[in-house]
Write a structure and sequence with these properties.
18% of the residues lie in helices and 42% in strands. The protein is of the alpha+beta class. The protein has a single domain, classed as Roll (2,3-Dihydroxybiphenyl 1,2-Dioxygenase, domain 1), CATH 3.10.180.10.
């Protein structure tokens, strides 16, 4: 028991900012969860996984290497979890399969699958949030963002769309089509039919950090992309710049400028 408590206590805040953008100005940015009780999630992301609590104005975020996890309080009960929606799960690499398994088990989380051979864990957090962990023993830190995994009946079409949007490198990871970006990758798994749109689910949208967002949004519209919400600056979020669009199958996407780079708008919670 003491060793388990030590593991939880030693999950120190991990200091890292988002990866530098690619030539198109893109990097992975955040995942945004909408749940009934954000404090339940905060105890897990901060207390168990060691995320650092930071703020962009009034917005609280959990900062992990390569990604921000944002947890908001849903105004109405979500229509479902991640499984069955366009975003099936998101995944991290971890330093130690054994230590992470102990840590997650001590937190009472549900193991969907565990594979000691490939050293992978698939775990369900409360609210239907599914997270994958894969060991990468050579990594320097404890945890690192790796991928966002979308379900689609047409992997090639989705990969082409995300490649055009982000300027990422198209490729494959095993059986999955993928677009590789600074900070990780967007992967596509084959589904027999289109899954539910993300809006209103516990994972409401995914986010990319974009350098020169205002000019990029104008370019998107000129290319025929339709923005769900136009470019704007949000003073209450420390001047964060944002815009929204939706992919062809219903994944809601937020584009931001201000979470990463040399002049981040966030500040750490030093309490």
């Amino acid at each position: 028991m003491r060793s388990l408590l030590w593991l939880l206590a030693s999950a120190a805040p991990l200091l890292a900012q988002l990866a530098p953008p690619n030539d198109a100005g893109f990097a992975l940015g955040h995942v945004h969860l909408m749940v009934e009780d954000p404090e339940v999630q905060k105890k897990l992301w901060v207390g168990v996984l060691g995320a650092e609590v930071v703020h962009a104005g009034t917005l609280e975020m959990f900062k992990l290497p390569g990604i921000f996890v944002i947890v908001g309080k849903a105004r109405t009960a979500p229509t479902g979890g991640m499984v069955g929606s366009m975003v099936n799960h998101f995944g991290f690499t971890m330093k130690s399969y054994g230590e992470m398994k102990l840590r997650l088990a001590a937190a009472g989380l549900t193991f969907v699958s565990e594979n000691p051979t490939t050293k992978q864990l698939m775990v369900d957090f409360p609210d239907g949030i599914r997270v994958e962990f894969t060991e990468e023993a050579s990594m320097k830190g404890d945890l690192q963002m790796h991928h966002i995994h979308l379900s689609t009946p047409d992997m090639e079409a989705q990969r082409s769309w995300y490649t055009k949007l982000t300027g990422g490198r198209p490729g494959e990871r095993g059986a999955f089509f993928a677009v590789f970006l600074p900070g990780g990758e967007v992967d596509f798994r084959k589904a027999p039919a289109a899954e539910a749109a993300t809006k209103g689910r516990t994972l409401d949208h995914i986010g990319f950090e974009v350098k020169g967002l205002e000019a990029f949004c104008k370019k998107l519209e000129a290319q025929g992309f339709k923005l769900e919400s136009p470019y704007r600056e949000v003073p209450q979020l420390g001047g964060l710049k944002i815009a929204f669009l939706v992919d062809p199958e219903g994944t809601r996407i937020e584009l931001t400028e201000g979470f990463g780079g040399a002049n981040p708008v966030w500040k750490a919670d030093r309490r």
